[in-house]
Amino acid sequence: MTYGDFPIYTRRYPAQGVENLAFDLLLGKPCLMVIHHDFCSDGCARLVQFIDQLNSLKVPLTWRPLGDVVRRSYRQKELSPDSVEIEMYGTELRVKNGFDQRKRFIIRRRDSDPRAVKEIRAESDQIAWHFSKGRIAFEIELNPGESRTVSIKFHDLSGNGQYRKNAGYKVKTLLRRYLSEARDNYFVPTKARLAGFAK
After folding, report:
1. Own/partner pairs for 23-26, CB < 8 Å, 24+ apart?
2. Are residues 73 and 117 located together in one domain of the fold?
3. Are residues 40 and 77 in the same domain?
4. 61, 84 in Cβ contact below 8 A?
5. What is the pLDDT of residues 5-50, one digit of tens each?
6. For position 110, which CATH number holds?
7. Beta bridge partner(s), residue 85
8. Cα(146)–Cα(151) distance, rounded to whole angstroms?
9. Are residues 142 and 77 in the same domain?
10. Which run of H or E residues covers position 109?
């Protein structure tokens, strides 16, 4: 699922149940969970119980930071015995050749403005790329078991006048930050203390 060129990942709350996360895993989607700090108000007992439920699923889970999840999220299709097509979603991609022979990986990424692309690299090597049918495309070859991280670097848009934050945007952002701080530092702790008195 995307919003323009930006990928959208489904996130789940513990209240939605472990079964929804299991279904996401069955579909091959990353398992992204979200909690708010008040979910830990009971000394993290609910959080530990939820994690235990997740770990009891009959699927091997690997716990990773969000950046690693996005970096390892892609869709692949074997085109021929020696080539695989990959659709990447983020600006970085960690590709591993899990086959028992050398493979050519044809990598594509949806993009509406190829002029914004500065360069594409596979670690320290610069890669040739082209744009066709609304997608950036490039290729890498990997030996069996080999993995590489490819990254798309973009030109800085803030200096060329295409992207400017106006005063209204800055005021709204500042207000949102202060209100979030007030909620986190005053409202939620007070709510927890009042709940303790009610017991």
Report:
1. 25/57, 25/59
2. yes
3. no
4. no
5. 666 778 888 988 899 888 888 888 888 888 887 788 888 899 999 9
6. 2.60.40.1180
7. 77, 106
8. 17
9. yes
10. strand 103-110
CA triple 140-141-144, angle to 5 deg: 140
What is the domain count for the chain? 3
The pair of structure tokens assigned to 113 is 């403005």
Helix (H, G, I), strand (E, B) or coil at 84: strand
Residue holding tokens 């997608």? Answer: 135
Query: What is the span of the domain harbouring residue 22?
Result: 2-63
Instruction: Tell me the per-residue pLDDT of 111-167, one tens digit each, with 9 for 90 and over.
Output: 888 899 999 999 999 999 999 988 999 999 999 999 999 999 998 866 555 556 788
63 touches 42 (CB < 8 A): no
Rg, Å, the chain Cα set = 22
Total-model pTM: 0.69
> Among all chains, which residue has been given the structure tokens 């919003």?
3
